Amino acid sequence: MDRPIRVLVAKPGLDGHDRGAKVIARALRDAGMEVIYTGLRQTPEQIVASAIQEDVDVVALSILSGAHNHLFPKVVELLKAEGAEDILIIGGGVIPEDDIPELKKAGIEEVFTPGTPTTTTIEFIKNNLKK
Amino acid sequence: MKDSREKWEESTLDKALSRFPERKEEFKSGSGLEVERLYTPLDIDGLNYNEDLGFPGQFPYTRGVQPTMYRGRLWTMRMYAGFATAEESNKRYKYLVEQGSTGLSVAFDLPTQIGYDSDHSLSQGEVGKVGVAIDSLKDMELLFDGIPLDKVSTSMTINAPAAVLLAMYIAVAEKQGVSEEKLRGTIQNDILKEYIARGTYIFPTEPSMRLITNIFEYCSKNVPKWNTISISGYHIREAGSTAAQEVGFTIADGIAYVDAAIKAGLDVDSFAPRLSFFFNAHNDLLEEVAKYRAARRLWARIMKERYNAKNPKSMMLKFHTQTGGSTLTAQQPENNIVRVAIQTLAAVLGGTQSLHTNSKDEALALPSEKSVRTALRTQQIVAHESGVTDTIDPLAGSYFVEAKTDEIEKKAMEYIEKIDEIGGAPKAIDMGYIQKEIMDAAYRYQKSIESGEQIVVGMNKFQSEEEPVKDLLKVDPKVGEMQVEKINQLKVERNNDEVESKLKALRNACESDENVMPYIIDAVKEYATLGEICGVMREVFGEYEQAVML
């Protein structure tokens, strides 16, 4: 690829704790990626619209409120409906182990829980790009 | 002293260092301040006992706000709880009281915190998740069913729609036959930290500040025992700030509320005694103790010197503490019990008035009944077995603790001066200054963990293979539907003409400069929903738009 990897970091739902999202955004940027952060309270529709408009390679979703089972798959579905299946979708936050297999089945490629070093996420993105 | 110290360095220390080098080149506190090898009387040279410490219950309150502290009465053990429906949460409150909890603390779900009813499209997937869903007075009646409101004190973590939830609380009390002047408790009601760190804002800064001063005024006349705000550093710290930033930014917010109230025509001593604070407790025990002592002294000085407060109660910084959620790890969750115990000690040695201890499983989910009990027991063990409650401010006079207290006060004051220069906290927030400072600190901390400079046991060192944790609390996914059903039924049963007329009166009050509290109380009593009431205010006041920055 001849341009830097473009990542949309997004906060779906109503929760306002964005420390994790901001830390990961900065780490990705320090790793040479182009990062767009949506800010708080984004609906799946808004996130998908930004992802298409910004022509990103990766959508990184962050959520702590427990609404992930509802909101994460919705983002995947909407991206599919837009024909954007070549975007890598990952998620992070306070997400119980039990929920992870279902989220992966729904199309979230990897889920990063608290305590994951930023380098793990960076490596994962580099090795799993779809575009 | 200086001479003998130098002599020690030359004769004893140098020899030891050349044979056994220290573990690290540089030692730093949990929030990045340098820690010297040794503290001696030289480090507290300028300390004047009477002016800087004084006696407990006396200005500048460094040693505590009450003359006898925990010898007289222990802190309030107030566990933050709430999930799913009002009925479910009511059961948890009764359980906690039975287990020896001495105050209630209500966690609301995100739609409630942002002023949406459970049937709003943005509420989908969020209803009942991080707290209890409250749509109308009906839910509030169920929440406090069988809990006499003249006997308990209740803290409600509610900010943007604080006026509405307080109105509902007053209305429930009235139904129980308890008059509002008997009510004891706290509403968080701190909107500035929402813009800075927590994100559950609704309205722009100006009308938000007006709602807050309306509450100050209403309560100073009608609900005199109620703490009308809890100025919160907790979330500032959770967002990644240092200990000194936590004190500096929180007190800068406090200054903004005092300024707003004075500008609204209130006398400082009429509302300042009802201001309270909320701080975090992280793992660096001694730095945290110093932080609370510094905050108390700084606030006392500001209230006396900057605002000429006369009532000693206006100068006392009273605070609730919660142990640090972000310090807990998803790895080896049992270790969190130890972290919480250290943080509990920090809060108690720092002189807190009430305390919530986090449960070991909170990096994974909401706490289960069993894990919340262990968290409460941790407080009870510190209270009744550790002995640290038997004398007041036991760490005073420690060269290290006093030097750190000075240092944190000084660093916090530098932030306050910087914010004064910018033109006050609301301006500094709109400019993104405070958010940027916190973000930088959060990123530095993350890097120090990844480099291994900061060790987190079980996470970046001493790891082990683990089984996933079982028995986590799960919120019934049907809660959303149940709440929607309740709202539909409510709208059939209530007098909709009355609701409409009360909402119209509220709209008029919002458009004028009248105090909105009585109108909100009238509306909730007719069972207007939270979403309807906030909807009226959204239309009049507009909504806050966050400046997105990295």
From TrEMBL, chain A:
Keyword Metal-binding found = yes
User: Cross-referenced CDD domains, in alphabetical order?
Assistant: MM_CoA_mut_B12_BD (cd02071)
The B12-binding domain covers 4-131
Gene3D superfamilies hit by this protein: Cobalamin-binding domain
Extract the Pfam families matched here.
B12-binding
Q: Which InterPro entries match?
A: Acid_CoA_mut_C, Cobalamin-bd, Cobalamin-bd_sf
Q: Which metal ions or organic cofactors does this protein require, according to UniProt? A: adenosylcob(III)alamin
Keyword annotations: Cobalamin, Cobalt, Isomerase, Metal-binding
- Drop me one GO molecular function for this one: metal ion binding
Key word Metal-binding present in the record?
A: yes
SUPFAM superfamilies registered for this protein in UniProt? Cobalamin (vitamin B12)-binding domain
Designated name of the protein: Cobalamin B12-binding domain-containing protein
Output the lineage of the source organism: Bacteria, Bacillati, Bacillota, Clostridia, Eubacteriales
